[in-house]
Structures are given as structure tokens and as C-alpha cells.
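Protein in question passed on here:
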Amino acid sequence: MAVVTSLLVMDKSALRPSPPEPRAKGQLREGISYAAHTTEIAVPLVMMGLVGTLAYEFTVSLPLFATRTFHGGSEAYGFMTAFMGIGAVAGGLITAARGRTGVRPVVLGAVGFGLAILFTALAPSLDLAYVGLLFVGWGSVSFVSVGNSTIQLSSKPTMRGRSLSLWQLAFQGTTPIGGPAIGWVISESEPRTGLLVGAASCFAAVAAGAALARRRRGHTDGGTADALSPSRPSMRAA
């Protein structure tokens, strides 16, 4: 109901629709090439590919984290997911209020997400794990929303749909691949290790994204002159 209400009260005069791109041969190849050569699209895609594969595996790691690490049950797991949800709501509201997009906020979002997972993995008590998961939810939503918005606002109208489809592939298409891998890691060690692998993937994504952005720094690329320059409040303006 809230979503429908938001759509009904939307100021349509502020919308700037573009004509739909007609279907043609080679559009997928063209979209991949465009994304690969546009810094503010390529960097979030590379980062999400790494993070999506190994960090977003909480349905695998958290149940075992609750039972094997802290010897809890369904109640402990329920509180874990609840704290993640609370953090996600708070993080979503704050991220939307700030309205920052660009490569730099995406990189910083991955840093915060990785630190939150690391803190949770090393938490000595269940209560501290709850606190850590609060920030895991925050970091998760912040990283995803800023990355998604950056790609949308950096894409040409004729390429936006294809760019977003690649983002969805990097996000939801990689998680089923990493699930068995994280499950194997936990089976061979402990749930903390599975979370540590997720945190490491965030830091690896930060290194990869920053390296790719610096390589293209100073060159005009898809309308972006400096990928690591301070972000602009374009999410809110759009």
C-alpha cells in the first residue's frame, strides 16, 4: 500500500521519460562493452560481483553462527535477522537523505560493510554480535542502494536498462554460486570463518574497485572525468 501510494502522489511533471530503445541485434554485446568502458558502471559491477558471491550469504552463515558459535536456537537467529532488519531500515533512510552517488561512496560503503561483518565475526558474545549485525544491515543497504543509484544516474538513457540488468546479475546471480562455497568453508572450520570470508571479499572489492578507478583517473570516460573525485548529491536531485 505504501508503494502504491507513493506512485500515486508522485510529481509526474518532474519526470523526464526517454523513448524506449527498439530491439536490435548485438544489444547485449553493446551493453556489456558500454558498461566495461564506463568507470562509474564498471567499478560498482566488479565490486558487487565479489561482494555478492561471498558476503551476501547470511542465510547460510547466520543460522550456524547462532547455533554452533553461540549455542542458541531459533530465538537467537530470529534476533539476528531482526537486528539486521533494523539496521537496514536506518541505513536506507540515512543513505537516501544524504543522496550521494559515485565511485567514492560505493567504495566507502563496501569498507563500512566489510568492517561491520568483521566486527560481527569476531564478536565474543551474542549481544555484541547483535550490535554488529545492526551495522551489517546498515552497510548492506547502503552499499547496494548507492551502487544501484550510481549505475542508474551514470548510464545513458538508451543503456540504462542493460546496465541495470548487469547489476542484477552481479548481485543476485552470484549469490547462488557463493552459497555452497561458504557452506563448505563453514563445514571445514566454523561459522566465524564463513563471515570472515565475506568481510575479506568486501575488502578485496574495495581494492579492486579503487585500482580500476585510479587506472582511469584523469580520463574522460562515459562522462566521468575523475572517478575518485568527491561525490555529488545527484541521487536526491534526480
